[in-house]
Amino acid sequence: MEAGGVRLGREVTQDRSAAEAREWLIPSGNGGYASGTVAGTLTRRYHGLLIAATSPPTGRHLIVPKLEAVVVYAGVRYELGTNAWADGSIAPQGYALLESFALDGNVAIWTYALGDALFSVSLTMQTHANLTALVYSLERGDEPATLEVRVLAEDRDHHGTSHQDGRTFATERSPDGIRVALPSLGTLLVNAAAEWTIESGWYRAFALERERERGLEWVEDHPLVASFRATIGPQQQLGVTLALGDDVARDADAILRERRALDASRSASETESRLATLAIAADAFLVDRRFADGTIGKTVIAGYHWFADWGRDTMIALPGLTLATGRHDVARTILRTFARFVDGGMIPNRFPDGNEAPEYNTFDASLWYIDAVRAYVAVTNDRDLAVELYPTLRAIVDAYKNGTRFGIGMDSADGLVRGGEPGVQLTWMDAKVGDWVVTPRIGKPIEINALWYAALRTLERLSQLIDRPSGVYRALAEKTRVGFSRFWNDGYPYDVLDGPSGNDPTLRPNAIFAVSLHASALSPEQQHAVVDVCAREFLTPRGLRSLSPRDPAYVPHYIGDVRARDGAYHQGTVWGWLIGPFASAHYHVHGDRALARSFVLPLLDELDNYGLGSIGEIFDGEPPFAARGTIAQAWSVAEVLRVLHDLA
């Protein structure tokens, strides 16, 4: 593989459970994607060959769930697909023919052994378009093969499921393929130089195993709209494109070549293949956001498959996704994009799917925004952007000092910021089920105040950089530093001060930020103690636990229905992104680069598991630390990139 990637042999591909446990994802760059399992089985509602972003980066709809392919070679019919059905049967079982699977950058490649022939299927997406390209190739063979493909179409929100109903998918021939009239989204155009037949009917009762495990609806139907047939000679190929909108006519092989060239440019600065893979993975999260006035900004998809763009995740991930990978122009655009939405000193917590107004229910996102600006200016020396965004940063600090939504404001007695309301979760530990806030943290959370102190020091330094008065921020920072001493509690800080029940001594990893951020209000001895406790109580090969295993509320496994999973989300579940702050803090107090890097390197093993070529969201709190949640999470990838570059 020329760029960073992953290759799996038959020991994985021909083991159905292993092949289904590994998922691939190809992003479009506008919020859309193609995704599935190595085996080809649909196991999630989010699996499909074309999930289009109809209002980038959201409005995502499943358009093409599957292409069911059969190859006839030397008189033998080989079914390449794999389907699991609600009655428990598996048919066909194409995974048994899989010689290998490769994720070569943003190109997925399946290679099948058909007697003495090798037949491959390559797939990618055109960037910034709702278009998937596939190339079917007879790589090795003594005679031509006949390819027969059935096309399944769909028209639903990617969060939903579909059942045979009264919807119609009117299909007609086009010059190069077929045009399918979708019930709500316009036209699906499928192009291939082949013999086409209009079909009708439904594939009923696909079993979505991952959804069943998650306690969600897990049986789905999809309509059949057409089929095509073509002859492919030895060392020849057939290209197929799937596009939402009928104005796209592109050569599939050319799209593959363009995507490979882009991947090569993304990874060119990385000499280590694993970091090259991560640099390419970063592309999945950096997407366009279209504004009402027609302009286009940049934002970060928090995770695939179900997250949209979240303010907190965007700012935490920005240094790793953009600064560590040399995408300084993207970082600049993201910072400008979110500056447009600052309201009451707050950036949005998230932009919902659809056209709903942004949600501002976040305590920390605006403070992470200030830290992202600091990191950007430190790397780029972009004084112009510092001047441009300085009023925005001042507005954030003023709002936190004087008071804004959700009771957020500075306590004049100790210089610490407080916030929170019953029934609302504002920190990154944000699990909520109905009216149940699983980890209520009303009061003065430690990571919020670590960020507040760091933000004040950032404003002090930026003021000096652009020749503005800095004394007010220096004085506020000193007041906060003195007040921060209230957190110390017999060897480890309180998690929250001045909550409804007083000070919360629960052992959680949030204190690590009081060491990892660029400015710390803790003494050197206290910083050492925090790192040592975090190493002892929370450290795993996949990140930090969210709660000490010695706590009676500790939940070791993130499994079950929605209530069970959300109840475990921050009660022991391991978060991959926390390895970044831990490694930074460890290096800060111990000064050993190699040792600090050693805590991060095991996460690179995840590139061959779960979400291939990327790093997922969370892991169980106990061995073997099984991956859970999203298959690709922005801040997980970003923090590994950031730390490995910082410690290089």
Please specify the SSE layout and strand pairing.
Elements: E1 5-8, H1 10-13, H2 16-20, E2 23-27, E3 33-37, E4 48-55, E5 58-64, E6 67-73, E7 76-79, E8 82-84, E9 90-93, E10 98-104, E11 107-114, E12 117-125, E13 131-140, E14 145-152, E15 156-157, E16 170-174, E17 177-182, E18 186-191, E19 195-198, E20 202-207, H3 209-213, E21 219-232, E22 237-244, H4 252-267, H5 273-281, E23 286-290, E24 296-300, E25 303-304, H6 311-323, H7 328-339, H8 365-380, H9 383-402, E26 409-410, E27 417-418, E28 432-433, E29 436-437, E30 444-445, H10 446-465, H11 471-484, E31 488-489, E32 492-493, E33 496-499, E34 502-504, H12 513-516, H13 524-537, E35 539-540, E36 543-545, H14 562-568, E37 574-575, H15 579-590, H16 593-600, E38 618-619, E39 627-628, E40 632-633, H17 634-646
Antiparallel strand pairs: 1-10, 2-3, 3-4, 4-5, 5-15, 6-7, 6-14, 8-9, 10-11, 11-12, 12-13, 13-22, 14-21, 16-17, 17-18, 18-22, 19-21, 20-21, 23-24, 25-40, 26-27, 28-29, 30-33, 31-32, 33-34, 35-36, 36-37, 37-38, 38-39
Helix pairs in contact: 6-7, 6-8, 6-17, 7-8, 8-9, 8-10, 9-10, 10-11, 13-15, 15-16, 15-17
Could you explain how this protein is built, in words?
Helices cover 30% and strands 29% of the residues. It is α+β, with helices and mostly antiparallel strands. The protein is built from 17 helices and 40 strands. The two termini are 25 Å apart. A hairpin with a 2-residue loop joins β10 and β11. It is elongated and about 80 Å long. α8 packs antiparallel against α9 (383-402), α9 (383-402) packs across α10 (446-465) and α15 (579-590) packs parallel to α17. The strands form 11 sheets. It has a 9-stranded antiparallel β-sheet. Strands 6, 7, 14, 19, 20 and 21 form a 6-stranded antiparallel β-sheet that branches. It has a 5-stranded antiparallel β-sheet with strand order 2-3-4-5-15, with no helix packed on it. The chain folds into 3 domains: 5-264, Beta-galactosidase, Chain A, domain 5; 270-402, no CATH class; 538-648, no CATH class. The mean pLDDT is 95.
